[in-house]
Amino acid sequence: MKIFFRKTLALVLALSLILSLGLSAAASDAMGEDLTAMDTLLHQETQLSTNTFWSTAYNDMRTENLITYTPNMDVMPIVTYGQVLTDRNTVTDTARALESQGWRVVAGINGDFYNVNTGLPIGLVISEGVLRSSDGGYYAIGFRADGTAAIGKPAVKVSAHMGYLGADGMEVSRQLTAVNKARVSDGGTYLYTYDFNTKHTTGNTEAGVDVLCTILEGRLSIGETVTAVVERVEETTSATEMRQDQFVLSANLKSDAYQVDALRNIPVGATVTLEASAAGGEWNDVEYAVGALYSLVADGAVVAGLPTGVNPRTAVGVRYDGSVIFYTIDGRRAGYSVGASMDQVAKRMIELGCVTALCLDGGGSTTLAVTAPDKLATSTINRPSDGAERKVSNQVFLVAPNQPTGELSHFYVQADNQYVLAGSKVTISASAVDTNFIPMQEDYRLETDGGELDGNVLTTPLSGGEVTVTAGSGRRTGTTTIHAVTTPDALAIRSADGTALTTLGAAPGSVTQLTATAAYQHKSLKADPEAFTWSVEGNIGTIDELGSFTAGLPGQGVITVSAGGRSASIQVTVSDLAIQPVEDFEEGTTILDGIYGEGLQFSRSTAPETVRVGRGSGRLDYTLAEGRGLAADWRAFLNTPVNRQLYTSLNLWVYGDGSNNVLSLLYDDGAEELQVLPAATLNFTGWKQVSVTMPQTGFSIQGLRISAGEPVYTYDEETGAEIVTYPETARAGTVYIDHIAASFDGQMDTTVPTVTAQVSGTTLTGAVKDDVDGVLSQSSVSVTYDGKPLTFTYNSGTGALSAALPAADGAAHRVTVTARDGSGNIGRCSADIPAAGAERRFKDTAAYWGADYCDYLYDHNISKGYTDGTFRPDQLLTRLDFSVMLYNSLNLDPAKYAGVSLPFADLGKIPESALPAVRALYAEGVVTGTQGQDGKLYLNPDGNLTRAQAAAMIGRSQEKGYALASLTFTDAGKIPAYAAFYIQTMVAQGILSGYTDGTFRPNNNITRGQMAKILYSLM
After folding, report:
1. Residue 749 domain-assigned?
2. What is the pLDDT of residue 592?
3. Which domain holds residue 948?
């Protein structure tokens, strides 16, 4: 790490430690409703603030972390960039390097935006007073030796005096285009130094003129001069290497003669002089500086025209008094922080007192690390949206000397939870901190102004309120405040693994450990088990004071938990068996095959629109008989006796036709005639799950019928003849039924199983659980590796599973665990194995956000791109591209569809190589074509697809049964009805998502790159 520091800094006694957590944070109209605020003094004049807000617009939380720094001689701001400018490192790794050099890293954030291909920052870099990279016309913040800041557009200029006279007798001088930036073909003259890249070369690959110079004196600093002697002048098509005491002036041969000839004509041995200047004198004494792409606040006002989109953000601003705000807000994490727009961050910076503020790199780069007062090393305190820190081009740190003084300054006091349910316990810890803000050994005593202390455990008062605990030794103290809440906003009942429950299924005699949680102002409260009261309604079992439920006799009831005037309840079903599938219509032959009379016909349907669970359903076409209004009885339906002691109900999905006819089951109880069990009045359209209660004795279902409902009997007063009439109903229609299952007391289940999956090295571990059926059998679980079946081991008692994965090969892979419960609900979870240093498969995706997905398609023969080696990710997807890519990803057998006849009038436009894909997707109901004005059906292979059309077709390729998500996109009203179901289920699975501004944009055309991500997510 090329960083050097002043070796002596004054030690100033820290007089106070701020550590508080209030019920109302510092007000913020920009971020939403104020929830909590916590301030911690990290070092002299350097404070960390962690604040949370509630966004009503997104119905979610926002969490910000910021450092307030007042320039002082104890804490120094610096900018780091690794060994060379193209290096990328995480904030934490860089902090470790600084610590190894003997510094205490008070805080650190990520720096400038950078080119993802080269790692080069887009803007200014100054370290140790040396200009490492020019600003590119962008903004920057710089820091002087006393910690004060310069902020704005530095507009750095570097001029080169070439050391010879031109034809006009004047000294030849040129203003350089950039310092240590990638050379543009016609961009002018560039300066490269030893800091540019790891090979210490110019990195150029096109023909140009390079002038290699050896530095005689001076350094490249704003307001200073460098003199050097010319060692070599040459035209070259490759990169020029240099030593640490050298630099290169370089111009592409495609640049104009004014630039190229100036370099060509420099004599070897000439003295070249470099001069660097900035737009204002405030930049002359800057020791460290970092660039920024956007200005957020100028002269105390929000800058107009900022990009939209809610994301994680990093910003830096200067307040009216010269203090500096280093700001981060997390995002892309539901339940923790949704992020913010640049406009919102700008308004927030103004709320924090900034008169000028800049936006640094954000998104997955947003990172803030600090060294807590009781620690010796840094740790990340925010939650990067990638799940781990991203390596970035440069960083900004606040550092201080790391030598202990041994002189006590104060105590840093913490509670393991700041928000608690009144009466619950918290553990207090305290650390002595010396005058250099380094932890030290010192005895202390704890005192409280409320509740009871037993050693370092505080029992908060039942009356609630703020409780302050003080640690002290002589004249030095420190405090923390705990908030004991008497009345929470909400309670929840959870399983032992923390999953929130709405229902519970249990077998007689089983024991289920339940837990309760409480929330206040959208924030979880720490609550002891003893703080809750449990109760059971119904003769279904007992529950003790700690939430351990012992199931009793079969039946249904309610478990309720109470605390602080609030309660929460769940429905409980105790049954001998889990819901048991009877018929799922997934095979060609079903139990519905049998003898039945005229008026009622059965066929199996696989059209996606007619299926509710899986890939098949039963189709009933009926015509009511004249007179009695009854379709013929359907025989040999369910011929397996059902034991009342095991099951008491049959559940089935029915697709009603709105006919007002009645669908009934026929059963045999030993009497001369079959008995009737009405299942559903068909006064609805679309799918509906119904439950039919079985008789008290064992029986077998023998058939099904559709009738006009109960007849009405009247008499002709004149003749005395009986008159039979039926309700007004349709005489004929079509009804679909799907997934018949046996259950206990009408229990129905539409919740998908809970599935987890993690990969560590070459081992997959996971777990499967279902709130109604409990642990599922191994036959209900499958594991795939890149879409292909993978052998796994499974514990049917606990639901735990594991599998050995193939050895790492450097490429990306996706492992998916899928589980189906007895009601046909499907849960899935995928674990990603990221690519590790593999070469890009396409020459045009290196800078593309979805490059990994494009590579995945190549590796798995889903798409090889174009013959010129490109993928063209931003190109609109054609219908033919879609068909071929989806077909390849589904691993369909072409032989199965070889005989399929295609009805499209434009078959001649479909290449022979693509016909197997089109045949298969047409046969599976995925691709249906569009009707032209001539009434014929067309595939339109060269036509483009909207996002809604693509979603519907991709959704049709999936089996039914996955969860359905609510469509909360701001433009959800524009989603066509035909696509809504498929978008709901794929959003729930994480296959589809919207844009960062909250829209889905259903009518936008889908690109090849977007398709690549979807197909990867389907695996």
Report:
1. no
2. 63
3. 851-1018
Q: Based on the fold, state whether residues 614 and 716 are members of the same structural domain.
A: yes
Residues 877 and 989 placed together within one structural domain of the fold: yes
pLDDT band at 259 (very low <50, low <70, confident <90, very high): very high
**Would 6 be classed as within a structural domain?**
no
Q: 656 phi and psi, to 5 degrees?
A: -70, 155
**In CATH, what number is assigned to the domain containing residue 463?**
2.60.40.10
Question: Are the C-beta atoms of residues 727 and 682 closer than 8 Å to each other?
Answer: no
- In 3D, which of 12, 2, 81 has the Cα closest to residue 401? 12
Tell me: do 596 and 540 sit in the same domain. no
The answer to whether the CB of 557 falls within 8 A of the CB of 538 is: yes
Residue 18 has pLDDT above 70, yes or no: no
* β-bridge pairing 419-421 and 476-485: parallel
Per the confidence metrics, is the pTM higher than 0.90?
A: no
Task: Kindly state the tokens that stand for 416.
Answer: 């393991």
Backbone angles phi, psi at 314, to 5 degrees: -130, 135
The string of pLDDT tens digits covering residues 591-611 is: 665 555 678 888 888 888 899
- SS3 assignment, position 567: strand
| 11 pLDDT above the threshold of 50 | no
pLDDT, residue 485, reads: 93
Question: What CATH number should be reported for the domain holding residue 722?
Answer: 2.60.120.260
* Domain boundary residue, one of 450, 465, 484: 484
149 pairs with which residues across the strands? 143
Q: Would you say 723 and 714 are in contact if contact means Cβ atoms under 8 Å apart?
A: yes
Q: Are residues 438 and 363 in the same domain?
A: no
**pLDDT confidence band for 1005 (50 / 70 / 90):** very high
How many angstroms separate the Cα of 70 from the Cα of each of 109, 148, 564, 653? 17, 8, 44, 67
What average pLDDT does range 906-914 have in this prediction?
88
- Token digits for 970? 């701001």
Task: Please count the structural domains in the chain.
Answer: 7
Domain endpoint, select from 461, 484, 507: 484
387/141 Cα distance (integer angstroms):
28
Q: DSSP 3-state assignment of 507?
A: coil
- 588 lies in the same domain as 705: yes
Q: Per residue in 49-80, pLDDT tens?
A: 999 999 988 888 999 999 999 999 999 999 99
Tell how strand 171-175 and strand 178-179 pair up.
unpaired
Residue 373 CB partners (closer than 8 Å, separation 6+)? 17, 40, 41, 42, 412, 431, 433, 437, 439
pLDDT(210) > 80: yes
H or E segment and range at residue 701: strand 700-707
Max distance between CA atoms of the chain, in angstroms, equals 133
In a domain, 417, yes or no: yes
Query: What is the secondary structure of 217-275 as a DSSP string?
Result: E----BT-EEEEEEEEEEEESSPPB--TTEEEEEEETTS-HHHHHHHHTPPTT-EEEEE
The torsion region of residue 109 among left (phi > 0), alpha (psi -120 to 50) and beta comes to: beta
Q: Is the pLDDT of residue 523 over 60?
A: yes
Same domain, 712 and 783: no
Residue found by looking up tokens 């009804």 in the block: 735
Report, as an integer, the average pLDDT of 490-519.
86
The answer to whether position 9 is within a domain reads no
Residue 76: what residue type?
M
Q: Are residues 506 and 622 in the same domain?
A: no
> Tokens 């600003």, residue?
135
**Cα 672 from chain centroid (whole Å):** 62
Q: Quick: pLDDT tens for 912-940.
A: 888 988 898 888 888 888 888 888 888 88
Please list, in sequence order, all residues whose beta carbon lies within 8 angstroms of the beta carbon of residue 903, skipping any fewer than 6 positions away.
929, 937
- The C-alpha atoms of residue 287 and residue 751 are separated, in whole angstroms, by 60
pLDDT tens per residue, range 815-838? 999 999 888 899 999 999 888 876
Mean per-residue pLDDT of the chain: 87
Please indicate, yes or no, whether residues 860 and 1008 belong to a single structural domain of this protein. Answer: yes
Given a contact cutoff of 8 angstroms between Cβ atoms, the answer to whether 370 and 318 are in contact is: no
Per-residue model confidence as pLDDT tens digits over 461-485: 999 999 999 999 888 999 999 999 9
